[in-house]
Amino acid sequence: MTDINNSIQGDIALGLVDLNRYPIADLDNGAGAEFLAECQHSIETHGWCNLDGFIRANALAELNGEANNLLPTAEVLHVKRNIYQGAIDPSLSDDDPRRKEFTHIAVQLADDQIPVETRLKRLYHSNILTEFVRRVQKKTQLYRCADEFQALNIVALQPESWHAWHYDTTECTVTLLLQAADEGGEFTFLPNSRTDDAEDREAVDRLLAGDMSQAQTFSRGAGTFTLFRGGYSLHGVTRVGGNRPRISAILTYDEQPGRVIDDDINVRIYGKRVENILAARNAKTTT
Ligand SMILES: O=C(O)CCC(=O)C(=O)O
Ligand SMILES: [Fe+2]
How far, CA to CA in Å, does 17 sit from each of 11, 111, 135, 162, 171? Predict the structure, then answer.
């Protein structure tokens, strides 16, 4: 998303983001340029950039209200998956931790279930926001994911559930906390635990065995916007305690324009609903 000549005026990010603290509308001058440099430094040195109070309090209440209104229409997903969200490599020995499957249970809305007129969807579609993410991640080009299901999601973790360890199927992810858990529910990850050709097996195996000593966890109140490289950093959310769900919006980006995810991965994640949509579409194209 290198071109933001499209109208900046009218971009919803201007009304939702706390621009005094986080001057994302002009990243080339003064306070904005300084802020961008800090964010880039954080990504480079830690593998994450955590922006507490990114969304203004009254705007956050509206976004969270939208999420809470939509969530009763969502299904409860039960996804059994390994950390790579792909098929298990048959050459691995039976006790290899890479074979380990975890069950992710969440009330989850896929992108196609979030109406385009919602503030949340409009925020995700904001060119100012996309450009900010691109520049923090130092990419020559970065696009919102084009997958009809994965692009923007709302994930509610009910008390007692957790978000099992995984790598995302797109490269760069932003997680925006809309409603914090009463306790627990911490976003936890191993920054840059793999590259395209190697993985820090020791750190990964340790985390999978339940040892969190090398993982990063930091406090995040509602409204916190956290950038990281989800496709390369093993991550998840610890068990939610207390009485209310933890709700986050997951915004995904990729260097490839028009990036879509394989149907079988989407069916594995989103289950019957998406399987039926794809089957109906395939039936139409083959008649
Ligand atoms: O809820 C979060 O903060 C992270 C969720 C996540 O990793 C995902 O949906 O892929
Ligand atoms: Fe993720």
Answer: 11, 21, 17, 28, 24
